[in-house]
Structures are given as structure tokens and as C-alpha cells.
Amino acid sequence: MASAVNESGTKGWLVSILELGAWFGVLCTGYLADKLSRKYTIVLAVIVFCIGVIVQTCAFAPSSIFGGRFITGLGVGSLSMAVPLYNAELAPPEVRGSLVALQQLAITFGIMVSFWIDYGTNYIGGTGATQSEAAWRVPLALQLVPAVILGIGILWMPFSPRWLVNNKRDDEALQVLSRARRLPPDHELVQIEFLEIKAQYLFEQETSVIKFPHLQDGSWWSNFRLGFFDYLSLLRSRPTNKALLYRVAVGSLTMFFQQWTGVNAILYYAPSIFKDLGLDGTTNSLLATGVVGIVMFLATIPAVIWVDKIGRKPVLISGAFLMAACHLIVAVLTGLYHNSWHTHVAAGWVACVFVWIFAIGFGYSWGPCAWILVAEIWPLSVRGKGVSIAASSNWMNNFIVGQVTPTMLDKIGFGTFVFFGSFSLAGGLFIWFFVPETKGLTLEEMDEIFGSAGMAASEQERFLAIEKRIGLDAYNDPDTDRATPDHELRKHEIEKV
């Protein structure tokens, strides 16, 4: 019994050490994304990731594997925050969800490919004791291929227009928006979007001067302290900060529930789970695991196409309830037949099918939509830090799930599925009752639905003065006091190009 527990603990650490590194990497990335730019932060993360992969591939001791996975995790965590942030800031609101969802589609494609690579390399040099070290070194080394492509390809991509405005490079920001929207720089929609970004930036700068006049000398230490206070402002429960604290809760809890649906328990330990469900032999369990990758990839495609039409909430809620149902059905079947799968083959296959349906449910909903949501809800001044907090919640909970799952499968068996199913259900209810719909809104308009529109009178007056000073009031909707872009016109122009 002690050896079984020790084996489960070692397996848990081997899997979860990467997530621990990713958690730390995410926390560092918030500052780096604002300082270096989203673009160069991605390049740096790719370099760190490649170092970790090389250490693992060349390892000749367990400590090197653990160390390499931790370094790889630093890069993975940084990319998980910087890439959706970059996508969200460059995309127009009408297709922002689809473009951010493309990241998840790429992830599920990578999962699918990796499952089948593992299946193929499993036969290098035979099986069992005769298996060659290449069976595990080759799939590790192949991680370098997409990483290098990303690291080189991003160098030819534009900077985020919002980061450019933050760094007083307005002309470049306007040109990036013009090229990204395929409209001339003086087009109304481009001008509105640029001026909205500019107004938000100026407002946040003036707010910073008012709050921290002693930290405006531009020194490294002052900028570091301003960044620290930005993090602190996200966590303070004061009347002026309630909207930010609300966003922290939405972002962090969305990522909490994403991980406690048990998706990574399925992905990390799928071969073990399928063996427990009656699929004997490494070949059968790896084949069943490969199907998980295929169905999850295919299920992500509808999210890319329809998430901006249907909305975030319906997709997340339906996915959560579907995953909860799958967990509970697998739990019932496992509880009834876990000691007699060999005489209830049909029940074993039914359980496998519901694991695959679970993968479909996650693939179209919480996989892409959770990242879309946490990438788009933050104000400009703290967006990098806000996304890093939400992403750190994802990776810390990912780490915990990876740690406890082997022990849970050993100790409570089918209760593992009941446990994750309950959290899936709770996640759906959380989205239903506490998370607003963000479909089709500009990043600046998020302030209104998260309660920041009710600013103090002086702040409201100051914001309107900024709009007037930069000329945004010329585009005001005649029925309101605030500048609001014509979404129908924007959609028409998007469809035209």
C-alpha cells in the first residue's frame, strides 16, 4: 500500500511540476507584458520554454526531468497569459472571441497530435523492457518545432495597439489598427476605436498622477511601485475598487472552475483511466486516449465559428452541465462494475464514450470561452496584471488537480468523477448567476457592465473632458453622453472586407 501511495505521489509531482512553473511564469508575465510589450514577452517565453524542453530531452536523471519540466512550465504559463492578451487587444470586438478561441483550437490540435505521437513512439525499440529511450526523448524534442515557429513568426506580427498607446506611440497604434481593420486611418471606425483607447489611457494616467503624485518621476523603482499598487488595487475591497475586485473574482473563479471540471485529470491520466474502465493493455488505452484528442479538437471548431454570435454565457453554461452529466454517468457505471469490467464489456465502452462526450463538452465551451472571458474583462491600465492573476488561478488549480488526481483515483475510485462532476455543475451555476455577457463589446465598454460606469461625479466629468479634448465627443451617440461606436456599421464593414 505504501509503495502504491508513493507511486501515485511521484506520478502527481511529475505531471504537476510543470503547472507549478506555469503558475510562477504567469505571475511574472503581467509586469513583463506591460514593460517589454506583449510581442517580446511571447518571444522571451518561447526561449524559456525551449530551454526547458532541451533540459528534459537531454536528461539522464530524474532531477533533470523535474527541473526541465519546471522551466518548461515557466514558458507555458507566460504564453498562456500573453497570447490571449495579445489576441484580445488586436482583434475587433465582433470577432474577438473567435480569434482568441483559435488559441484553444491550436491547443486542442496540439493535444490531439501529441496523443498520437505518443502512441506511435511507444513502439520505438519494442515494448516493455526492450523499449528504447527514444520512445520518450523524441516526443519531448518535438515540442521545439511549434515553439520555434511561434518565436520566429511573432517577430513579423504588429505590436498591440493598446500597448503602443500606453507607450506614447500613437501614430504606430493608428497604423496597426488601420491594417488590422483593413480600413484607412481616417475611417470613422478606426478613429473611434483609436480614440477610445487613447481616452482610457489618458484617464488612467491622470488617475495615477492624482493617486500617486510622488511616483511620477519615470524611474525604474517608481514604475515598479506603480505596478505593485496596480496589483494591490485589484485586490482591495473599497467602494472605488469594487468593480476591479468583481473582475478579479470573475476571472479567478472562472479559471478555478475550468480546472475543477477535471479536464486535465482526464488529459493527464487518460491512459490510466481507460485501463480502469476495462480497456486492457497499453495499446487500447492509448488508442482511447487518442480519441479524446480528436473529439476535443473537433469540438473546438464550432466555438471558433459561433462564440461571437451565441455569446459566452450560453456556451459556458451548457458545457458545464454536459460535463457534469458525463462525470456522474461514468461515476455510476464505475461504481457498479469497477470490479467486473471483464464481464460487462458494454458498460466499459459506454463509460469510455461518456469520457469522450465530456471532452466534446469541454472542447466547445470551457476550453476556449474561459480564456476569452478572462482576456477581455480588464481595463487598459491593469489588463496585463489582471490577466496574469486570472491565469495564475488557472495554473495553480491545474497544479493541485495534477497532484491529487492519482491519489483520488487510488483512494476513492468512482468518487473522483462525482467530485469533479459537482464542481462542473457549480461552475455552470456560477456563470449563470454571477458573470455578465461580454459578447460584442469593446474592451473599453467592459467598464459599464462591470460597474465602473457609476464613477464618482468628478471622475465622470474628468473622463468626459478627456473625450472632448481628444475629439472623441465628435462621434458621440446623440442619445447619450458617452462615445459609443456604431456596432451595426462596424459589422457591415467587417463583413465587407
Automatic annotation (TrEMBL):
<feature type="compositionally biased region" description="Basic and acidic residues">
    <location>
        <begin position="479"/>
        <end position="497"/>
    </location>
</feature>
<feature type="transmembrane region" description="Helical">
    <location>
        <begin position="137"/>
        <end position="159"/>
    </location>
</feature>
<dbReference type="InterPro" id="IPR005829">
    <property type="entry name" value="Sugar_transporter_CS"/>
</dbReference>
<feature type="transmembrane region" description="Helical">
    <location>
        <begin position="244"/>
        <end position="267"/>
    </location>
</feature>
<feature type="transmembrane region" description="Helical">
    <location>
        <begin position="99"/>
        <end position="117"/>
    </location>
</feature>
<feature type="transmembrane region" description="Helical">
    <location>
        <begin position="314"/>
        <end position="336"/>
    </location>
</feature>
<dbReference type="Pfam" id="PF00083">
    <property type="entry name" value="Sugar_tr"/>
</dbReference>
<comment type="similarity">
    <text>Belongs to the major facilitator superfamily. Sugar transporter (TC 2.A.1.1) family.</text>
</comment>
<keyword id="KW-1133">Transmembrane helix</keyword>
<dbReference type="InterPro" id="IPR050360">
    <property type="entry name" value="MFS_Sugar_Transporters"/>
</dbReference>
<dbReference type="GO" id="GO:0016020">
    <property type="term" value="C:membrane"/>
</dbReference>
<feature type="domain" description="Major facilitator superfamily (MFS) profile">
    <location>
        <begin position="1"/>
        <end position="439"/>
    </location>
</feature>
<dbReference type="InterPro" id="IPR003663">
    <property type="entry name" value="Sugar/inositol_transpt"/>
</dbReference>
<feature type="transmembrane region" description="Helical">
    <location>
        <begin position="68"/>
        <end position="87"/>
    </location>
</feature>
<dbReference type="InterPro" id="IPR005828">
    <property type="entry name" value="MFS_sugar_transport-like"/>
</dbReference>
<feature type="transmembrane region" description="Helical">
    <location>
        <begin position="348"/>
        <end position="375"/>
    </location>
</feature>
<dbReference type="GO" id="GO:0005351">
    <property type="term" value="F:carbohydrate:proton symporter activity"/>
</dbReference>
<feature type="transmembrane region" description="Helical">
    <location>
        <begin position="12"/>
        <end position="33"/>
    </location>
</feature>
<feature type="transmembrane region" description="Helical">
    <location>
        <begin position="40"/>
        <end position="62"/>
    </location>
</feature>
<feature type="region of interest" description="Disordered">
    <location>
        <begin position="476"/>
        <end position="497"/>
    </location>
</feature>
<feature type="transmembrane region" description="Helical">
    <location>
        <begin position="287"/>
        <end position="307"/>
    </location>
</feature>
<protein>
    <recommendedName>
        <fullName>Major facilitator superfamily (MFS) profile domain-containing protein</fullName>
    </recommendedName>
</protein>
<keyword id="KW-0812">Transmembrane</keyword>
<dbReference type="InterPro" id="IPR036259">
    <property type="entry name" value="MFS_trans_sf"/>
</dbReference>
<feature type="transmembrane region" description="Helical">
    <location>
        <begin position="412"/>
        <end position="435"/>
    </location>
</feature>
<dbReference type="InterPro" id="IPR020846">
    <property type="entry name" value="MFS_dom"/>
</dbReference>
<keyword id="KW-0472">Membrane</keyword>
<keyword id="KW-0813">Transport</keyword>
